[in-house]
Amino acid sequence: MVHQVRGSSVDWAAVREDFPVLDQQVHGHPLIYFDNAATTQKPRAVLEALRSYYEHDNANVHRGLHELSSRATEAYEGARATVAQYIGAASAEEIVFTRGTTESINLVAQAWGGKFLRADDVILLTEMEHHSNLVPWQLLAERIGAQLRFVPVGDDGTLVLEQLDQLLTPEVKLFAFTHVSNSLGTINPVAEFCRKARSVGAVTLVDAAQGAGHLPIDVQEFGCDFLAFSGHKMCGPTGSGALYGRAEILNAMPPWHGGGEMIVSVTLEKSAFKKAPHRFEAGTPNIAGAIGLAAAIDYIEQIGRPAIFEHDARLTSYTLERFAELPGMRVLGPSGERGAIVGFVMDAAHPHDLTTFADRRGLALRGGHHCNQPLMRRFGLPGTTRASFYFYNTTEEIDRMIDILRDAARFFA
Prior knowledge:
Blueprint: E1 4-5, E2 9-10, H1 12-16, E3 25-26, E4 29-30, E5 32-33, H2 44-57, H3 67-87, E6 95-98, H4 101-116, E7 122-126, H5 135-144, E8 147-151, H6 164-167, E9 172-178, H7 190-199, E10 203-207, H8 219-222, E11 226-230, E12 241-245, H9 247-252, E13 263-266, E14 271-273, H10 287-303, H11 305-323, E15 329-331, E16 341-346, H12 351-359, E17 363-364, E18 366-368, H13 373-378, E19 384-388, H14 395-412
Parallel strand pairs: 5-17, 7-8, 7-9, 9-10, 10-11
Antiparallel strand pairs: 1-2, 3-4, 6-12, 11-12, 13-14, 15-16, 16-19, 18-19
Helix pairs in contact: 2-10, 3-10, 4-5, 11-14
């Protein structure tokens, strides 16, 4: 349930109470959960949606003529429509349910890339990509003989856009890039990238894993061909997510996995396949995950993504102000508008040691390379410590984090 006061102002304290996991102690201290870029916590509305499905409607979808199967199918396809509306898709048929961003990108690489890319074609990426939007393209390029190019990252944590025009040439058949960097917090100009890619005939894929739960997204305004995101980073269940693809592109792609449900007819020698999206959803899908994702979307939309982004930005700005008080701090990423992610290093301690120190005091941070090893090497670092926020976090928690980090600096010194 979302509580509001004074018209459209959100009562964030009341919203926080919808998340039971936050009401606990870790190592004898109240939990401060600042690992939201890795996964977010789940409100009661999502937990109840999962429980209700398994208690009342658990059945396989599309294949049964009995009542439970009908109810499960209605909820599952209703969830597809909810996702389509959430990201501004023209039709629910442009939404493929997947296990998340990683599987979505692999699907595109194998099904679309395997059919339409050829030797010496160029795949354009950026130096800030998560491994999920790098490794699948490396595997494809190695298999077919395609080439990889990269838009470099500047010292300020933003892409060097001055080089984009010379990199985005007619040889580029795909431009795949992140919406919000999971290490730097950089928010990329998606619509501009897609417009420039269209001008040279390149297909675009947007990794929206870090943006989907925080920012308004409209794939038609973006002008992208594909967009991928994960449910667990936006209050939904793990193992849930979606791939958006323009209908004409999805229907031109061959299936990725073969099995039940994705076929029209099968003989011993040959099969005919359904149109998208069902041709990409072989076997029994994560029905509960899709239902839980739809419940998470409904919950987020009650709050409003503009309000969430404003709240996140306030926390991030406050964190950067407080970090200036700490000795030996180096913060990565842009100084202006950014996502709710602050990656940093402290002279006093390795990120792993610092994260372990914080955990013993109830503070959940993340330390390491964050599936961004090339980006870490770009900045000459083995890794960073990352604090990432969501709408249930508070400035009081940030104040406590500053105290813990100040204690860590003294302890390791």
